[in-house]
Amino acid sequence: MPNRRMRPVLTLLAILAVLPALVNAQEVPAAAPTSGSITLDRLFEDPALNGPVARAPKFSPDGKLVTWLRPNERDFLRLDLWAAPVAGGAPFMMVDSKALVPDEGALSEAEAARRERQRLAGTRGLVAYEWDKKGEAILAPLGGDLYYVSVANPNSPRRLTRTPEFETDAQISPAGGYVSFIREGQLMALKLGTSEEVALSPAASEATTYGMAEFIAQEEMDRDTGYWWAPNDGRIVFTRVDESAVALVPRVEIGASQTEIVQQRYPRSGATNASVALFIKDMTTGAVVPVDLGENDDIYVARVNWSKDGQTLYIQRQNRAQTRLDLLMVDPATGQSKVILTEADLVWLNLTNDFTPLASGDFLWTSERTGWRHIERRKRDGTGVQVLTTGNWAVSQITGVDEAAGRVFFMSNKDDSLEQRLYSAPLAKRRAPSAVTASGGSWGVAMATTGKAFLGTYSDPTTPPRLGLYEASGRLIRWIEENKLDSRHPWAPYLAKRASVRFGTLNGPSGDVLNWSMQLPANFDPSKKWPVIVYVYGGPGVQVVRRSWGSNTDQVHAARGYIVFSIDNRGTPNRGRSFERAISRKLGGPEVEDQLAGLAFLKAQTYVDPSRIGVWGWSYGGYMALRLATEAPEAYAAYVSGAPVTDWSLYDTHYTERFMGKPQDEADAYSRSSVLPRLKNVKRPLLILHGMADDNVTFDNSTAAFDALQSASIPFETMVYPGQKHGIREKARAKHVQLTILNFFDRTLGPGPR
């Protein structure tokens, strides 16, 4: 770790008062003219092709530093912690993960599963970090142990744990008195003042853990933790997860040198879920009280939040059918609760992280009851509703609040369905929101706790992701990770032959307007006939067609001589409830219709070879590829299905039942959505790929497909990956996945125009 002296810095608010903007947020760096073509090999070489893209950017609590995780130049899957003074000065590496822990060793099963759920599988080094309250130190989990890194002396970190067990989900308590973590399924804490370890929960048993988010919460509910500190460290609430009634699903993890049968507790649709209870521990007296979650225990504990003053605990409780969401107001001294707000929907309710407590005791909430998600302000007990935003557009998420200025900040595609931008609106009245960030691309934002500034990550089709520090007005203070697309950028040798992108719309069969994107090879000649690779996801929660830097895999396909096309069908997000809910009890129906409308559009273009169009996707996209291969078996020339769900009764409860209900109640819907009885319809070349240790879409989904195809004497190709889970991210194997897919399309479609 380099030894760098930090220059004196001002506080963030002082800097904002005196420092003018350097450039407008819409400025796009110039690209250097170059001549090479991007290759599949380069995708998986160091340094990262997209440049030093920042992850997990945060403000230090004192407002003096910005920190972020940065891919190492010698290994882009290993992350180090970098920092930059807000007042100016060169960024510097604060934690060199390899210098701190040269050999991280093997991950524990719990940590490996946690990273898989967070889509961090394959990454190494510092994958998460936490600031202390004063901005004096950072908590760095590495190699299964915890380190406390002083900002003043980062070269001499304090090692907090030294155990053979893995510590996971480490947090610094809000008041800075404790470092808490999970060890062997038990919630523990270390007193920072004395280094004394204390157990905050009972010890775990074979099927019962404490303070951990269960599989369903992590994979489907966007809840990665199972414990929450009160703001003053006085109390902590934690889960008890009992999985004893969850079915054990044998999963054969076939590796290169050995085979292991893992008994995974996997709650398939219609089956029993884990039982989740909540307890509140008083850190002064040690007393523990249970939280009253109601008489029905077949529920989901969706969210847990504290009021700003720590006097009120709020629980979001979702029913099993996901048609009702109750907000419970809990007395933390007794655990007694009452329902203060209920959202109800005949189809399903989406979860968010929008609950935002205010210093006044009020809180912000978002609701889709009008068909579009909008912001409300409510009193502590849920009464006194003030609607702050309205209209035929949706709030994507609340990002922050400036209570002093009376503003709430949120992300939305209000002005363009292909873009996410930051907006603000008054906290006390309904007025038209103001756009904070520039149009033209997609933004991700991390607000300062004061709401006076934000860290903004921006990209567009000609600008790779870059991170800047901005005033709340949207004026740039300084670049944190500019990632300038100049002659030194990793993409520079290939820019002249980078595919260009087009965006457009078409009217779908339901009358809905569907967004599409098209990547055109650098040597595109509209007078010739080109093959097309259609990339599909098509499932809920994922928008593929966006005005952003885009996928390097698409660029490789375009460089090989293919047009790359995508269309967002009904069921995908950010288009309002009616567009999204069209798939209810109809998975594999409306999505297929809309994808085929996209195919018809392609075939009508004079520059497209209608006999050379292939389609590929992974996960839900894998399901869609199989669905298209069976519902429209001669529509495409070739189909590639990666890690597909093949029968929704094999997938998990929370995701599947949200859209399909229980199989016991919706047998016809499940029968219609399954691809297994329809695989006899396959007529064109088909490739199926799957990780053999997949614990999300389990491998038996594909083996069932193999059996159905073989029973019908239908030839197909397959590639399986020993020891690999749902996301195959390790460089050599990820490269093999893409090489297999590209070779398949080269054989079945043929690259280049004719």
The average pLDDT score comes to: 93
Q: What's the count of strands? A: 44
Task: Tell me the number of helical segments per DSSP (H or I, 4 or more residues long).
Answer: 13
Q: Based on Cα principal axes, name the global outline.
A: globular
Structural class: alpha+beta
Known CATH architecture of the domain at 500-748: 3-Layer(aba) Sandwich
The first-level CATH class name of the domain at 500-748 = Alpha Beta
> Helical amount among residues, as a percent range?
10-25%
Could you describe the 3D structure shown?
With 754 residues, the protein is α+β, with helices and mostly antiparallel strands. Among the domains are: 52-172, Neuraminidase (6 Propeller), CATH 2.120.10; 500-748, Alpha/Beta hydrolase fold, catalytic domain (Rossmann fold, 3-Layer(aba) Sandwich), CATH 3.40.50. It has 13 helices and 44 strands. The strands form ten sheets. It has an eight-stranded mixed sheet, with helices on both faces. Strands 1, 2, 3, 4 and 5 form a five-stranded mixed sheet that branches. Strands 14, 15, 16, 19 and 20 form a five-stranded antiparallel sheet that branches. The longest helix is centred in the last third of the chain and has 18 residues, at 731-748. It starts with 11 loop residues before the first helix and ends in a 6-residue tail after the last helix.
Which properties best describe this structure?
13 helices; Neuraminidase; about 750 residues; 44 strands; Rossmann fold; alpha+beta; disordered N terminus; globular; five-stranded mixed sheet; eight-stranded mixed sheet
